[in-house]
């Protein structure tokens, strides 16, 4: 395993109104639902005893709002950093559309996505391979910037956290859909200089 570097916590934002409706929400933003607000309040209580002094968050509003609700931007003992590398995957022309609309208007592409997402690129959007690479670079940036920190948090998205798990466990982007990431929950890794250990999933 090598030397211990840090604990790294990934947090998925609270549920949004788009999540409720089955809408593809990558780069577009929808407000948190009432349930999402409750999830964030509960998560704040769960993480209250952890000594987190650095928080990264994606540049999307739902992640930023969650970071503020859980950690409080007014706290001077926590360093807050916006990091677009942790934005959700770009669904391109599918942004803001639900599954029925996509299947009706992009039927062939949708079937290709279902058959093999590993090589798929969303129309005028991002491929899973490019997304995985983006998130991986963001993780390496955090590790290089945060050596010596006890616990570092990343407030992001379901897809981002899936990609992070795949990268840290050396599974590659092909394993993307082998994990479910719940809203308003955290995933905890212990980071060593030669490996990473998944300690908590959907805590």
TrEMBL record:
Q: Pfam family example for this protein?
A: His_Phos_1
User: Where does this protein hold substrate?
Assistant: 12-19, 62
Please state the Enzyme Commission number of this protein.
5.4.2.11
SUPFAM superfamilies (UniProt xref): Phosphoglycerate mutase-like
Which keywords describe this protein according to UniProt? Glycolysis, Isomerase
- The feature of type site (Transition state stabilizer) is located at 157
Query: Could you state one GO biological process linked to this protein?
Result: glycolytic process
Q: Which InterPro entries match?
A: His_Pase_superF_clade-1, His_PPase_superfam, Phosphogly_mut1
Molecular function GO terms recorded: phosphoglycerate mutase activity
Which residues catalyse the reaction? 13, 88
Gene3D superfamilies cross-referenced by the UniProt entry: Phosphoglycerate mutase-like (3.40.50.1240)
Family per similarity comment = Belongs to the phosphoglycerate mutase family. BPG-dependent PGAM subfamily.
Q: What is this protein called?
A: phosphoglycerate mutase (2,3-diphosphoglycerate-dependent)
Source organism of this protein record: Clostridium manihotivorum
Taxonomy-wise, where does this protein's organism fall, top ranks first? Bacteria, Bacillati, Bacillota, Clostridia, Eubacteriales
């Amino acid at each position: 395993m090598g030397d211990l570097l840090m604990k790294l916590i990934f947090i998925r934002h609270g549920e949004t109104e788009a999540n409720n409706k089955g809408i593809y929400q990558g780069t577009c933003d929808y407000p948190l639902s009432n349930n999402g607000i409750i999830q964030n309040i509960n998560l704040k209580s769960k993480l209250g005893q952890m000594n987190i002094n650095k928080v990264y968050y994606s540049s999307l509003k739902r992640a930023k709002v969650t970071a503020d609700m859980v950690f409080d931007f007014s706290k001077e003992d926590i360093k807050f950093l916006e990091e677009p590398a942790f934005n959700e995957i770009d669904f391109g022309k599918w942004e803001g559309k639900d599954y029925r609309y996509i299947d009706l208007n992009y039927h062939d592409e949708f079937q290709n996505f279902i058959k093999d997402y590993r090589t798929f690129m969303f129309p005028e959007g991002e491929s899973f391979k490019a997304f995985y690479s983006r998130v991986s670079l963001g993780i390496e940036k955090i590790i290089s910037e945060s050596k010596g920190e006890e616990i570092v948090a990343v407030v992001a998205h379901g897809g981002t956290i899936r990609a992070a798990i795949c990268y840290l466990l050396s599974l590659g982007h092909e394993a993307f859909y082998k994990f479910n990431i719940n809203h308003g929950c955290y995933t905890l890794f212990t980071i060593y200089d030669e490996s990473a250990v998944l300690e908590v999933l959907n805590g």
